[in-house]
Design goal:
Largest sheet: 6 strands, antiparallel
Number of helices: 7
Strand order of the largest sheet: 1-2-4-3-5-6
Structural class: alpha+beta
Number of domains: 1
């Protein structure tokens, strides 16, 4: 590497720097012990953008949102993500914890959906949504619930404007996969 500005000004001496490289933390752990440092973070999996699934979700967000918010980026970390239309993003919880996170990240204009009479996910529909998109999202919620797939079921839909119900059939897997991010 070329000499840095800090080296040129004498602030840093290259010969005193350690040769830490690669993914192993062995050298860092030994150095921490030498200085009596015992409370340091565990190694992590690295940057979320190196996870192919997360990267796809991030790319989709930046392709469809002019100014993503912190809330938008927090949603990338949870659930199954679907692009139902250029203007409509849909996130479906995978478990109780994710359902709670999705509910807590809902904005006033977002639609929160869940199956009325069966166990299942909480899902969030964000964007400008017409009835076709709402019905499509509802059929996805049905698909991931415990409701019988060969019967229609009621989906509750709520936001800051109130609560309503619609009855839908479950989406088939081929069609579902066409919307998955």
């Amino acid at each position: 590497m070329k000499e840095t500005e800090a080296e040129k000004t004498g602030l840093v001496k290259r010969e005193q720097l350690l040769s830490v490289k690669g993914r192993t933390r062995k050298t860092q752990i030994e150095l921490a012990k030498k200085f009596g440092i015992t409370d340091y973070p565990n190694s992590a999996g690295g940057c979320l953008l190196t996870d192919p699934q997360f990267a796809k979700k991030a790319k989709d967000l930046f392709e469809h949102t002019i100014k993503p918010t912190l809330n938008d980026t927090e949603l990338l970390k949870v659930g199954r993500h679907f692009r139902l239309a250029a203007y409509a993003k849909f996130i479906v919880g995978r478990n109780k914890d994710e359902n709670g996170i999705i509910s807590s990240l809902a904005l006033p204009d977002d639609l929160l959906m869940e199956v009325k009479d069966h166990m299942g996910p909480i899902a969030l529909l964000r964007g400008s949504c017409d009835e076709n998109v709402i019905c499509l999202a509802s059929s996805i919620v049905h698909r991931y619930s415990d409701a019988p797939k060969d019967e229609e079921c009621s989906i509750t839909i709520k936001n800051n404007k109130g609560l309503r119900e619609i009855s839908v059939s479950s989406i088939d897997d081929k069609q579902l996969n066409s919307y998955r991010i």
